[in-house]
Every structure is written in structure tokens, then in C-alpha cells.
Amino acid sequence: MAQQSIHVWAGTSDKTEEQFYKYFDQSKFLKNNQDLNLRCQFCKDLNLQNAYDEDWITIYHGRKRVSIQAMIEELPVWNDQAEVEIYQACIQKGVSTANAIFSYAADELTIENQKATNNGLQYIGRFNIPA
């Protein structure tokens, strides 16, 4: 069975919804992808030299904190075992409630600084999801 890697970040962001989504806005870079300074902050934080594939990212920002189980339901994961692994990793990292979560599916992506916060959220880990 084929698998796909999904990277997950979760936590509580103190940013407004507009500020939170601006972190992923790559519209300026898409207009002029010769200027790496125009990359969105998400791309800069992950050291992506190109635009990220918008088909492979899932972003959710809510107004109030809810259980991490409810946040995981927002991810494109349809495998109970993978959901349990993500939940356990969140709890292990001290994330039991959250108001935001995002994931990016990319087999080739390596997160250099796993302790850094991205858009105010903590990197939870890389998980293999059956495709």
C-alpha cells in the first residue's frame, strides 16, 4: 500500500484570522518567482525555494480553543491509526487544546528546526498516511 508523508503543526495562535492566513499568502511570489524575498513566510520558514503546492496544504484557524481531537478532524487524514499517532504526538508535546492547525503533505520535505514555531504553532511531526 502506498503512503504519503504529512507534516503537522498545531497549537494556539494569538494572531487574527487575517494575520494567520497571511503567513501562507504566496500571491506576490507567484507573480514574480525570480525574487525569493517575495516568498511567503511559510516558504521562508521551511526554506522552500519554490512556491508550495496549494493542493497539498490544509489550514484551519478558529476563534476559540477546542480539544486537539477536534482539530485533528480538520486534517485530511482518513486513517484511524494515523489520527491516533498525531493525537499522541500532540499530547506528548503538550498540545491538548488548540485554535489552529495546519498540515503539508510532502514526502521530500525535511523540517530542519523542529523546535521553531511556525505561525505561532508548534511542529508536531511527520506522519505516514496510507494513500
TrEMBL record:
A matching Pfam family: DUF4284
Protein name (Swiss-Prot/TrEMBL): Immunity protein 22 of polymorphic toxin system
Upper lineage: Bacteria, Pseudomonadati, Bacteroidota, Sphingobacteriia, Sphingobacteriales
